[in-house]
Amino acid sequence: MRFGIARGVGVILQKNRVFQQAVRMDVMAKPTYKRAERVADQIRMEVADIIARKSKDPRLNLVTVTNVEVSNDLRNARVYVTTLQSENPIDEVLAGLDHALGFIRSELGRRLELRYTPELMFKSDASGPQAERIWKLLDELPSDSPKEMESHEDASGLDKGRQV
Fold first, then answer.
1. Which ranges of the chain does DSSP label H, i.e. alpha helix?
2. Which among 37, 43, 53 has a CA at the least distance from the CA of 111?
3. Residue 107, φ and ψ in degrees, nearest 5
4. Are strands 76-83 and 63-70 parallel, antiparallel or unpaired?
5. Has this prediction a pTM greater than 0.70?
6. How are beta strands 119-124 and 63-70 bridged, if at all?
7. How far is CA 160 from CA 148, 155, 156, in A?
8. What is the pLDDT of residue 41?
9. For every one of its 164 residues, what pLDDT tens digit does the chain have, with 9 covering 90 and above?
10. Which residues of 34-71 are buried (b: 16+ CB within 10 A; e: fewer)?
11. In contact, 127 and 84? CB cutoff 8 Å
12. Which element (helix H / strand E) includes 121?
């Protein structure tokens, strides 16, 4: 009788190990991104193409779609844009995009094979000016010339020929 109980516990433990390995394999086999991210990337490419090729509004020249965030239910999408035009401020570009919103959404609905075309909200992308500001700050930092670096090494007492 004692042997039967021990054998039964061993079988349960063995099944538990197999289940844990299967769970680990299942977790490893899943993709690392969600469907919303794939749809967002497709929306980004399609909206950029629609703005570049189909739009006739002069306010929308040189507009770049930088990012798209889609809700998990794929009903809403935030489209982040920036412009390379210095004479057109981003407010005018956003006004032009809001004016063309119906056209862009209907064209997007024709191109995407989704049950519902997401509601689009255009927003200004602030990462471009922030990146420029960071680059300017980095350029303003004093750069150490090779002669200055050698003087720092001599002052620290490190011998160039001797390895530590």
1. 2-29, 35-49, 90-99, 101-111, 127-140, 146-156
2. 43
3. -65, -40
4. antiparallel
5. no
6. unpaired
7. 15, 12, 11
8. 95
9. 555 555 554 545 455 555 555 555 554 455 556 899 999 999 999 999 999 999 998 888 889 999 999 999 999 999 999 888 777 788 999 999 999 999 999 999 999 989 999 999 999 988 777 778 888 888 888 876 555 555 555 555 555 555 54
10. eebeebbebbbebbbebbeeebeeebbeebebbebbbe
11. no
12. strand 119-124
β-pair partners for 81: 65, 124
Q: Would residue 157 be called left, alpha or beta, if left means φ above 0 and alpha means ψ between -120 and 50 degrees?
A: left
Query: What's the pLDDT score for residue 25?
Result: 52
Structure tokens that stand for 31 in this block? 């993709």
Name the nearest CA neighbour of 112 among 159, 68, 162, 55. Answer: 68
The first and second tokens of residue 111, run together, are 């191109």
For the record, the structure tokens of 102 come out as: 């119906």
